[in-house]
Amino acid sequence: MLDDCLFKWERLSSRDFNIYQISLAEQNQRMAKIYLTLTILFSFVLAVTACEAKREHVIQGRTMGTTYQVKVVTGYFQSISGLKEKIDERLVEINRSMSTYQKDSEISRFNRFKKTGKKFRISIDFFRVMRSSQEIHRLSNGAWDGTVHPLVDLWGFGRSGRQNKVPQKIKITALLADIGFANIEVLEPGFLVKKRAAVTVDLSSIAKGYGVDQVADLLRNQGFQNYLVEIGGEIFAAGYRLDGKQWRVGINRPRAEAAFNEVYKVVDLHNQAFATSGDYRNFFEVDGVRYSHVIDPRNGYPVANGVVGVSIVADSCTFADGLATAIMVMGHDSGLELINRLDEVEGLIVVERPDGRLVDYPSRGFVSGD
Ligand code: ADP
Ligand code: MG
After folding, report:
1. Domain boundaries, the chain
2. So what's the pLDDT on residue 11?
3. Residues whose CB falls within 8 Å of the CB of residue 84, separated by 6 or more in sequence, listed in order
4. Best of 205, 277, 292, 308 to mutate for ligand 1, by most ligand atoms within 8 A of CB?
């Protein structure tokens, strides 16, 4: 159209002045029309792209002795104002319930509560995690046990700090007497009952997963559809990333010397949770023997089954988190058998052979890339 116009101007300019004047007015009119059309077109394209355009917001903070990160993909003009406050509020609430680092948390008060056979009232958060814990305990035949913490402490992986030495057998045996998740009853609608006065509960291997699920629920309830929630490596991914592709997470190479960003395998997630448990960072060595922070509640010793990492994909992060720790104790044979038996649950177990080689045991439907 513009070319056409220029051509006309050249042609007309060769004629007499009057004609040229008239043509110029005509041409201005035409140009104005073009500009108007272009402006309308441009505004329309802008409006359409603005509707289509997306943004990724990143919210970061600290909780449960670690960091959290939330990524939310929204429409270009959609606001997330006040969202971080809501997330922090929810996480503070969960910590007040299940943090053993807070003296006045529900869990700490329950651990000090010495009356057997008496009901101890708990919040819905604590109740839900206790119910999931019972399920993990049952599925793992007691390999996962929420009452194991006195042993974790004795081995130097708890609040009392690192010892880097093997405890006396007599101390291990003494503590074993009060270990056993069956010593705690969980009653509807929200009560715990101790069967042994000295039994205590620690949910550190499952609570992060619960925190992730709760933040994911909060985002869903706020109307968001595309987001990724991560607390200390435990994840829930909903919808799609900014580029429209599926969320993708990396499994860290399960080696003590591996950098935190060294990727062993990548996994695509879509409305799924992902949790990892590993003993390649938290351990000590005496006389060439490695002692892990994951304790077998049946004999009181750190597990030594060669499993160095377990990653689980499931619908719930609470479940994935607890199961990953459970399988660290169960070992690769029964662990893999359990994952394959569960619907909508996939996973990868990595075993370190005595010669140092890493061997992968993926579940039947586990899909990953390098
Ligand atoms: P992290 O919390 O380091 O991400 P995990 O989720 O695997 O790793 O949890 C490990 C923690 O679980 C240990 O630090 C300990 O407090 C606890 N733990 C150790 N052994 C067991 C067990 N057999 N059952 C339940 N919890 C355990
Ligand atoms: Mg765990």
Report:
1. 1-52, 54-362
2. 35
3. 59, 61
4. 205
The average confidence (pLDDT) of the chain is 90
Unique residue bearing structure tokens 């010397």: 257
Look up the pTM and report it. Answer: 0.87
**pLDDT for residue 9 is more than 70:** no
User: Which DSSP helix (H) or strand (E) runs through 168?
Assistant: none
Give nearest CA residue, ligand 1 atom 18: 294
State which of 111, 129, 293, 334 you would mutate to test the pocket of ligand 1, scoring each by most atoms of that ligand within 8 A of its C-beta: 293
| Tens of pLDDT, residues 124-139 | 999 999 999 999 999 9
CA 303 to chain centre: 25
- How remote is the CA of residue 277 from the centroid of ligand 1, in Å? 8
User: 271 near 302, Cβ under 8 Å?
Assistant: no
Residue 15 predicted with pLDDT over 50: no
Q: Does domain 54-362 have CATH number 3.10.520.10?
A: yes
Tokens (6 digits) for 48: 């359409």
